[in-house]
Amino acid sequence: MPATTAFRRSLAVIATLPLLTLAACGYGSKAQSDDTAKVAAGAKKIDGLDSVKIGYFGNLTHGTALVGRQQGLFQKELGATKADYATFNAGPSEIEALNSGSIDIGWIGPSPSINGYTKSNGKSLKIIGGSASGGVKLVVDPKKIKSLQDVKGKKIATPQLGNTQDVAFLNWIAEQGWKVDAQSGKGDVSVVRTDNKVTPDAFANGSIDGAWVPEPTASKLVAEGGKVLLDESSLWPDKKFVITNIIVRQSFLKEHPKAVEAVLKASVEANKWINANPEAAKAAANKQLAADSGKALPAKVLDPAWKSIQFTDDPLAATLDTEAQHAVKAGLLQQPDLKGIYDLTILNKVLKAEGASTVDAAGLGTS
């Protein structure tokens, strides 16, 4: 079976698996109203909507959404329209929720954004803003791996076949001149697809020798005795690459632009507050993680993880195009037509109103 066909089938299977399905949403977990944010007296509904359904991952790389929710920023901008939330563990499930209308807007990584856009022939989603850069590392067992060359012949975990980190690691392997079958993960390096939730245990018991993973998983591995062998940001121009962006259902964007603008205002406000108040923002993100998962991150994990992530309104569109080409080279994606994947019109309107610099779609915007 060709790698591209198998990859598509694997995505289709994954996308049909709901995570802790709840009647309120249908996908994801903890879909509920933001009870901590009070609606201002006299506030009105935006576009006549009762609610706007927002999705995100319980990862620090989704810190904009975590902080925006914890600080009540989304609810503030939405007025009497309730901010409802759903959390996800995997990109395909969030894309499925977006396509089904179970969420309207979501924070998500570049690979699922590309896959969702291309599989729908450009009809399902638009990327409407940036959120975060960085926060991805290759962490290894220093007893087994002392240099980058030592990675050859070892078992290295990535979160999921074809996800953002998996594609990045496969591309790095190719650049070393090593060979790996993208579908099976077998070759000069054994690529072991392992859920981030279980990766630290797999690392601790020695079933993997390292992992190319996002935060906070990377720092959890360091806390288990791992060593950061490579920070992915060092591989990119200006050490910046998209790790999280904001997507919206195209029909929702068309029908409710004021609601989209409200969410983007809150996102810009959240990023501004994060960058001005890093310690308070870190605490707020951790508090929301605890509310979502029932467990806060310890300081030895939280502190280095948060420090490695940059929060930005810029979607870093040129790097998304590069990541797509990496997936093509790995045989996980046919050459995509990404023209029109971005619509940054509303974001740039918000940024102009804030007196901030506008951002660019790198030729991939809506004409």
TrEMBL record:
Pfam annotation, one family: NMT1_2
Alphabetic keyword roster: Cell inner membrane, Cell membrane, Membrane, Signal, Transport
Keyword Disulfide bond: no
Lineage top rank: taxon: Bacteria
Matching InterPro entries: ABC_SsuA_sub-bd, NrtA/CpmA_ABC-bd_dom
Protein localization: Cell inner membrane; Periplasm
GO cellular component, as recorded: periplasmic space; plasma membrane
UniProt signal peptide: 1-23
Major localization class: membrane
GO MF term list: ATPase-coupled transmembrane transporter activity
Similarity comment: Belongs to the bacterial solute-binding protein SsuA/TauA family.
Protein name (record): Sulfate ABC transporter substrate-binding protein
Annotated source species: Streptomyces monashensis
